[in-house]
Write a structure and sequence with these properties.
This protein is α+β, with helices and mostly antiparallel strands. It has 2 domains: about 45 residues; about 210 residues, no CATH class. It is built from 5 helices and 12 strands. The strands form 2 sheets. Strands 1, 4, 6, 7, 9, 10 and 11 form a 7-stranded antiparallel β-sheet that branches. The chain is globular. This is Secreted protein.
Length: about 250
């Protein structure tokens, strides 16, 4: 617990130190089908409809604009939800969709980190979409997918929050890497069906089961955006030191 507290504190310090820096320029997102017969409709005026009317269908809006940055350097990630969510049960997956998928790497290995919007701890962050900073994500549960070997992650990928993963780099695997594949990479990984083009940051619609089925009327969203801030060198040194202390404390506990 001490280790996590120190890493979480360091992530918040980085967020505060970065607040005086200018974020990256406005981001661009691309709509992709991940699996199944999901439908994507361009409604004009910057609005996109995602229809996932059967369990297992998945689609996403993906961006590579902050590839090479760390999770902890996210300044803002946001999206507007425009369809009528009252047709869904309050607090259910479809009522608070979409959810986030980040490709992260240590320079050799890849995995996908996801949040769970239907988790009660995440519910208060929904307000006709999302407008999040890393501070909002830091203490939330981070689920790790798409790699059967998680030994390269803190605590072997078990029981993590986003703060525990703050120092990992956001980077989508290449088409060649995804085509070759690795143990644990599944059909639901955020990559374009048929091309294997992937994006580091993804707003995802639909899932492997039926937790995010939209029905015949799809999710309508607009203004997807993500930005990162350069972290001062002193903050990185502080994070590294606190992270090391945290893991030593966890190991000795």
């Amino acid at each position: 617990m001490l280790g996590r507290t120190k890493i979480f504190s360091a992530a918040l310090i980085i967020s505060a130190l970065s607040a005086t820096s200018l974020p990256a320029s406005a981001s661009s997102f691309n709509a992709i089908i991940i699996r199944g017969d999901a439908t994507i409709n361009d409604l004009g005026s910057g609005k996109t409809e995602f229809i996932t009317d059967v369990g297992g269908e998945k689609a996403a809006l993906g961006s590579n604009d902050i590839n090479g940055k760390t999770l902890g350097s996210i300044a803002n990630i946001s999206i507007d939800r425009l369809d009528d969510v009252t047709r869904f049960s309050a607090g259910s997956g479809p009522a608070v969709a979409p959810y986030l998928n980040f490709w992260i790497t240590d320079g050799t290995n890849y995995a996908v980190v996801a949040n769970e919007p239907s988790n009660p701890a995440f519910q208060p962050l929904y307000s006709n979409g999302y407008n999040l900073s890393f501070a909002d994500l830091s203490d939330k549960v981070a689920k790790v997918y798409e790699n059967s070997d998680l030994s390269w992650l803190p605590n072997a990928g078990v029981g993590l929050t986003f703060a525990d993963l703050a120092m990992f780099t956001i980077m989508a695997p290449s088409v060649q890497e995804l085509t070759t594949g690795w143990a644990g990479l599944g059909s639901g990984a955020p990559r374009e069906l048929g091309t294997n083009v992937a994006y580091g940051v993804n707003w995802v619609f639909g899932d492997t089961l039926s937790n995010y089925v939209s029905g015949d009327d799809g999710y309508i969203v607009a203004n997807a955006s993500v930005s990162a801030v350069p972290v001062p060198a002193a903050a990185w040194l502080l994070l590294s030191a606190l992270g090391l202390l945290g893991w030593r404390s966890r190991k000795s506990a």
